[in-house]
Design a protein that fits this description.
This protein is an alpha+beta fold. The protein is built from nine helices and 20 strands.
């Protein structure tokens, strides 16, 4: 056992990953599988069929109390009041200057709201929310109480329907339910970070082993593959789903990041006035999708050049397994952010042409 493994948290599924031959790495303080059989094979398994992810590093906060809705309206950008019980909302928290504290999911459950936040931001997000508590609100960090499995792919429902009698056919995207799954009462949602149909299961300590076995055994006849974080990253990038720490952070705002659709300017929230002004005046830069030719692999931090001037940086990049071409995200000045605009990507002194394309890169996702 390495020093790193001793320091990082092992998820409840760690031994299963090692047994399956996963290459384990430290990520956001957790030992996570980066890949099993390889990024391309795992990526295409999710696009074409079905894959299983361990997402236990994600954070979960319970928020309840008489004033909970007003509190969440103030601390998140989307309209929490629009949520009915069982519905889920993609949102973000912003600073007074409009910078993004984190992006997150807001679940409206029967007796509370649940916030699902990024692993690297658990402590920061909890402290941020605590610092803005007002009224009668109970905020509890339950990140250590849950393990999270995600079943993703166009055949996700076929597999999951063998484990539960819940009416999955009638379950819309971005909703949650609590029902019996493989003999266990489980909270699950129809959500994902891949662009494909899928379900995410929130498991307590006694449920992890039974559910892992149930999913993987049922998955054998469906050719279920185990999927690591590398393929999760390439899948989300093909869909232009922002990754906190790469494409968005406290120096970026949701308007320039293309997340204006989760910002409700008709309500009051932290950073609202700055974002309203940014939208009205139009942001000076925008996060764009870039396609390149050749077999180059764009990486975070590579320079974007126009007229021999540095105009931006790559925030995320990969050689797309689905499209078989290099793709990247990056911020460009508004004048260069139009669809069809051309810039150059500089890699180790060489420049490669890049074209701004309409998002998402991959347009055949099965999520519904």
């Amino acid at each position: 056992m390495t020093v790193l493994e001793k320091q990082a948290v092992k998820t409840a599924f760690y031994d299963y990953h090692v047994e399956a031959g996963a290459r384990m790495v430290e990520f956001a303080g957790f030992m996570m599988p980066i890949q099993y059989q390889g990024i391309n094979a795992e990526h295409l398994a999710v696009r074409d069929n079905i894959g299983l992810f361990d997402l236990s590093h994600m954070g979960e906060f319970d928020v309840s109390g008489p004033d909970v809705r007003e509190f969440l309206q103030r601390t998140t950008t989307n309209n929490v009041a629009a949520l009915e019980t069982g519905q889920i909302q993609y949102s973000c928290m912003t600073r007074p200057d409009g910078g993004i504290v984190d992006d997150l999911l807001v679940y409206r459950l029967e007796d509370r709201y649940m916030l699902v936040v990024n692993a690297a931001n658990i402590d920061k997000d909890f402290a941020w929310l605590q610092s803005h508590l007002d009224g009668k609100v109970d905020l509890v960090n339950r990140s250590g109480d849950f393990s999270l499995l995600a079943i993703q792919g166009p055949n996700a429902q076929k597999l999951f329907s063998e484990l539960t009698d819940y009416d999955l056919e009638a379950m819309p995207y971005y909703t949650a339910a609590s029902a019996e799954v493989a003999g266990q009462q489980v909270l699950f949602s129809r959500t994902g970070y891949t662009g494909e149909d899928g379900f995410e299961l929130y498991l307590t300590s006694g449920q992890t082993d039974p559910l892992w076995r149930a999913v993987t055994i049922a998955g054998q006849k469906h050719d279920l593959k185990l999927i690591g974080l590398a393929a999760r990253d390439s899948l989300r990038l093909e869909m232009k789903m922002a990754l906190y720490g790469n494409d968005i952070d406290e120096t970026t705002n949701p308007i320039e990041a293309g997340l204006g659709w989760i910002v409700d300017l008709d309500k009051d929230f932290i950073g609202r006035d700055v974002l309203a002004r940014t939208k009205e005046e139009k942001p000076s830069r925008r996060l764009v999708c870039l396609e390149l030719s050749g077999r180059v692999i764009p990486r975070k931090g590579y320079d974007l050049i126009a007229d021999n001037q540095l105009v931006g940086k790559v925030t995320s990049g990969v050689f797309s397994p689905s499209l078989q071409k290099p793709i990247a995200l990056g911020y460009l000045p508004r004048r260069l952010a139009r669809i069809g605009s051309h810039v150059e990507l500089e890699i180790r002194g060489r420049r490669f042409p890049a074209r701004v394309v309409r998002p998402p890169f991959y347009k055949e996702g099965s999520h519904r």
